[in-house]
Amino acid sequence: MLLAGVAGPTQSTGPAYPRRCPHRPSRGQPVPVSPASSCRLGGVLLALLLLVGCAVAPPDDAAEADAERDLRVRQAEIALRLGDPFNAAELFERAADLAEGETADRLRLQAALVHLDVGDRERAEALLGMLADVDAPAVAPLATIVRARLALPEDAADWVQRLRPVPADLIPRVEAWWLGALAAAHRAADDPLEAARVLDRQTPLLASERDRRINRERLWSALMALPLPQLRELVPAAPDRFGAWLELAHALRVNRLDAAATEEAVAGWRERYPEHPAAGEFSEARLAEQLQRLRPPERITVMLPFTGRLGSVAEAVQRGMLVALYDMPADERPTLQFQDVGEDGSNVIAAYRRAQEWGADLVVGPLTKSALEQLAIWDNYPVPVLALNRRDEVRGQPGLFQFGLAPEDDAMTAARLAVQLGHRRLTVLVPDSDWGDRVAASFVAGLHAAGGRALEVQSYRPDGEDLSEPLRALFDLDASEARHRRLQGVIGRGLEFEPRRRADMQALFAPAFPDMARLIIPQVRFHRGLGLPVLATSHAYSGTPAPDADADMNGLMFVETPWVLGELQTPELTRTARTLAETWPDTAARYPRLAALGVDALRLSAPVDVLAVEPRLTLEGATGELSVDDQGRVRRELLPARIRSGRIESLVFPSAEVPEWLR
To answer: Based on the domain organization, do 341 and 397 belong to the same domain?
Structure first.
């Protein structure tokens, strides 16, 4: 069925070279220059080689040998300038065969470096082994470069020190090779900024436009590897050539999720640096790449369990996607194909293969953990997958992203909220279940990362109502009463006594679902918890206003999705929420978070791979502020909320105390 766009059920090393060109000469054969060769040097080089005479008869004396050697060297240098490293390496080797001593060694080392440029390490090692004395003054600089290139990435920090400073008396070609080795050492030592600086210094020394183009790509790769916070600190940069590189990288990276801002930033950069090497084709290509990555997929297959007990859940997600679809500009709307994979997800593999046959650009779903487990069987995915759930054991598989309403995200945000409120020492009360264990573990980890500490964790039966035992243990009330009994025994008479909770506890983290949350808060107060801050996850609030029932949770602080809290951060999301409420009011009331999940699933379809390569960038979403970690998991940062007079409201900080993650 079709509904207006909805269809029914290491360092870069530049271009790779072949190990050996099919027309590359074997040792001992003359260098081919025939125009018919698919590897010919090009018109200019061919003419030059013919002028100086490519096929020279074997020399009869030393003078002729020197002339032949010098000829081969000139031919090799021409080949390098014209971007033909294969013939250049051969010519350097031929010249070395006609030389002796240090001259022969220098020529072999130059051949070795050219071999390394095209990835032929084996031949480079063989040439290094032919040297008579690698430490001879005339040979040592080139030998150092070759040894560094062969050793990296091992001992990278050591090679950085050995290659600095750059010797002052190197000829331009050797200096370029030296700087290339130093840049590679910096990259291997995880210092992309210094690698980029060195590559910028190297570029003008390179003989051919081809090599300069490759070097610009390497420089750009290094700038793309810089952590975004570090790049932000470097801008505004000095208005020199390298400073302009930094500004271009910053302009593109901070605007990766905004096409209009990207175009404006690049245009402004070109006006400031019209003569920069990247001002022409290079920046144009980078801009086109970025805009292309922001275009939404044309075809999306959505796999949901429309039949079975989860049918209403699947329908809520579907409706969220549909309202987001129709709020997109008409020319950007993808075609959606919905497939039913059933409650158990047993046909999820078949559904994925049908998506491939249909020509899908992205698959959204499945929704259940069991279906995700069945789908997560491949090392990579020809059609990328944005799963609507998460499994901890599934991670880092290219093309597979995991996005869902994971309680771990709530717990981590709640931990940061606790510390921001000044509560660094907390106790934890969770249901005795897999869900409770996961939430407790995430909260404890998040609390520790934020500088806090979990004093104790207690659990309770999920089907129980009396929480006296775990609360008394958490609050140390039994110990307080034991001290009272001991004191009475010493004194020999009765004493007035009121048990006191432990003094080192600043707050309690008690995640629970609505019915249990309404029981927890009154029992906390009964067990000497008056005035004790209590924090929870979004699960404590049903998503539907119920002021009479929720009055028992007054004072509870928790984290909530912007969609439910009514604190959407963009006009587009506000419009989409209004559309859902008008079109499907029952879904908006009963399943607001699931509808928000569908909204964000569609909004993530274009930028998810951008977020994956730029983990510090975030997308303002309906379910939270979204980012993607290095394992392909979509992380959500939620907003602080509380219950007051039985109703949800934003937890407002004084302006000077607003935490960084909320600014």
So the answer is: yes
CB atoms within 10 A of CB 395: 15
DSSP 297: P
Residues 531 and 385 in one domain: no
DSSP category for residue 350: H
Q: What is the pLDDT of residue 475?
A: 87
β-pair partners for 457:
428
Question: Is there a single domain that holds both residue 395 and residue 327?
Answer: yes
Provide the domain limits for residue 535.
Answer: 407-561
Q: Which are the contacts of 641, defined by CB distance < 8 A and separation ≥ 6?
A: 541, 557, 558, 559, 560, 565, 648, 649, 650, 651
* 582-620 residue pLDDT tens: 999 999 999 999 999 999 999 999 999 999 988 889 999
User: What does 121-142 look like in DSSP terms, one character per residue?
Assistant: HHHHHHHHHT-S-TTSTTTHHH
Q: In the predicted model, what is the mean pLDDT of residues 634-643?
A: 94
Q: Find out whether 318 and 381 touch, Cβ atoms under 8 Å.
A: no
CATH of the domain at 368: 3.40.50.2300
Mean of pLDDT values over 462-466: 89
Q: With cut-offs at 50, 70 and 90, classify the pLDDT of residue 29.
A: very low
> Please, how many CA atoms are within 13 Å of residue 325, restricted to the half-sphere of its CB?
23
Same domain assignment for residues 362 and 432: no
SS3 annotation, 27-55? CCCCCCCCCCCCCCCCHHHHHHHHHHCCC
Q: Report residue 239 as tokens.
A: 């208005």
Q: Tell me which of 509, 542, 561 is where a domain ends.
A: 561
Q: Which tokens sit at 265?
A: 């930033």
Residues 6+ apart with CB under 8 A from 489: none
**Tokens encoding 496:** 């007035």
- Percent of the chain at pLDDT exceeding 90: 70
Q: Is 495 left (phi over 0), alpha (psi -120 to 50) or beta?
A: beta
* Domain limit, last residue, from 263, 294, 325: 294
Q: What mean pLDDT is predicted for residues 342-368?
A: 95
Residues 411 and 453 in one domain: yes
Separation between Cα atoms, residue 607 and residue 618, nearest integer Å: 10
In one-letter notation, the amino acid at residue 575 is R
Q: What's the whole-number average pLDDT of the chain?
A: 86
Res. 223 pLDDT band, cuts 50 70 90: very high
Q: Which two tokens stand for residue 566?
A: 């009514």
pTM score of the predicted model: 0.77
Which two structure tokens, joined as six digits, stand for 597?
A: 């999940």
Question: Is residue 176 within 8 Å of residue 205, measured between CB atoms?
Answer: yes
Structural domains of the chain, count = 3
